[in-house]
Amino acid sequence: MSDNRIPLAGVIGSPIAHSKSPQLHGYWLRMLGLRGHYIPMDIAREDLETALRTLPKLGFVGVNVTIPYKERILEIADLITDRATLIGSANTIIFRKDGKIHADNTDGYGFLENLRQQAPHWNPKAGPAVVLGAGGAARAVVATLLDAGVPEVMLTNRTRVRAETLAEDFGKRVRVVEWIQAGNAIEEAKTLVNATSLGMVGKPELRVLLDGLRPDCVVNDLVYAPLQTKLLLTAQAAGCTAVDGLGMLIHQAVPGFERWFGTRPVVDEATRAAILR
Ligand code: NAP
To answer: Of 35, 59, 62, 79, which one has the greatest count of Cβ atoms within 10 A?
Structure first.
């Protein structure tokens, strides 16, 4: 393959029409004046491996992977980063020159960079964190919070066994709390993260008790549609710092874009506005 080919990247999922990634990468490519294209690809499960082995031959330098393939990709990849192994899923794929498929997970990176940007005073060591949810996103959040130095993560999920399995993978600093007792745990929290899909457009509202929220708590909702969820509005009313989920979506895309297109993009208000348009 000639080195002069225009680099191609994209996002693989099914369905894929809702993905904001093409808009985001397209915006950065235009703003930075770079050669390259980023394409949404709806690929059936049975075709996933063939597609991933073929794309590099067509000029693709990598892809993002989204629902429902973030776990399946680990069975196909030749090389997997430690953080993707720990989280149990990958969202960023690099097609290496030696033909190997390299899988990484940048959700935790995006989560942390967003918190740091929107809540610069946030101190992970200030006290315990409460994480709502025990799915793929919660795994990335728990791994990242522990890494950042949070003393304890109180983890709560509708399906308790899922929270217990997650806690077992991360050791003693993760304590499982009953879903109906989430409100009590929140009274102690210095960081609160909603990593469930509750509150998202088309999903039920998040109904955990928030009366005990302390004003020094930083509250992050991973849901970004709507941007201002009821959780964030309640947090603001309680005097907390409220962090929306859009920044995570943008920041998690940075490492892939830099690797594929050779320039590190900035995440600023104009980027957010471009995605919201
Ligand atoms: P997932 O693996 O499907 O997990 C969904 C989570 O939501 C589970 O903990 C599930 O609990 C909980 N849940 C769903 N319906 C519920 C209900 N009716 N009552 C109580 N709990 C319920 O999904 P995910 O990939 O972790 O994503 C979770 C959320 O994070 C989604 O809204 C997603 O859009 C968002 N997210 C945002 C970003 C970002 O960049 N901002 C990145 C990743 C994910 P059970 O285990 O009991 O089913």
So the answer is: 62
Q: Where are the domains of the chain?
A: 8-105+252-276, 108-244
Torsion over CA: 114, 120, 126, 127 (sign): negative
For residue 14, name the pLDDT band (cuts at 50, 70, 90). Answer: very high
pTM: 0.96
Concerning whether 70 is annotated as a catalytic residue, the answer is yes
**Per-residue pLDDT tens over the stretch 41-58:** 999 999 999 999 999 999
Query: Do 8-105+252-276 and 108-244 share a fold?
Result: yes
Q: Which atom of ligand 1 is nearest to the CA of 246?
A: 41
pLDDT per residue over 227-260, tens digit each? 999 999 999 999 999 999 999 999 999 999 999 9
β-strand 60-65 against 92-95: which pairing, if any? Answer: antiparallel
245 lines ligand 1 (CB under 6 A): yes
Q: Is 134 in the pocket of ligand 1 (CB under 6 A)?
A: yes
Q: Give me the architecture of the 8-105+252-276 domain, per CATH.
A: 3-Layer(aba) Sandwich (3.40)
- Our mutation pick for probing the ligand 1 site, out of 109, 197, 244, counting the most ligand atoms within 8 A of Cβ, is 197
Whole-number Å distance between alpha carbons of 201 and 252: 22
**Chain position carrying tokens 């990484």:** 104
